[in-house]
Write a structure and sequence with these properties.
Strand content: under 5%
CATH class: Mainly Alpha
Order of helices and strands: HHHH
Distance between the termini: 33 Å
Helix content: over 70%
Shape: globular
Number of helices: 4
CATH architecture: Alpha Horseshoe
Oligomer: single chain
CATH topology: Serine Threonine Protein Phosphatase 5, Tetratricopeptide repeat
Structural class: mainly alpha
Length: 101
């Protein structure tokens, strides 16, 4: 990440990829530290995609999936509520004619 400082065009993408890797390791080994680290990386990626950013909806949806994965493991209601809220945010940011809406 030091080669991809904040403000660098691909930093959000790199942070999301690292988060995805932690999710993969969590899925394989079940270490809660990995899913926690994934949340941190996706949240940081989201800070680099402010409202109006053309890729924000993708980052929001990815973060939602991480919370859903964590909910499936912990059954903590706050995780599923966060996942639902993020899905709704992602959907709301898509243009009305977007094929994914």
């Amino acid at each position: 990440l030091r080669l991809c400082p904040v403000g660098y065009e691909s930093c959000s993408f790199s942070l999301s990829n690292i988060g995805c890797t932690f999710v993969t390791r969590f899925s394989k080994h079940g270490h809660t530290d990995d899913i926690t680290r994934a949340v941190c990386h996706y949240r940081e990626a989201l800070t680099l995609c402010p409202p109006g950013h053309p890729k924000r909806h993708v980052t929001v949806l990815n973060l939602s999936a991480v919370f859903n994965s964590r909910f499936m493991d912990t059954r903590e209601n706050e995780d599923v509520e966060e996942a639902i809220g993020l899905c709704q945010e992602s959907l709301a940011t898509l243009p009305s004619l977007h094929p994914g809406k």
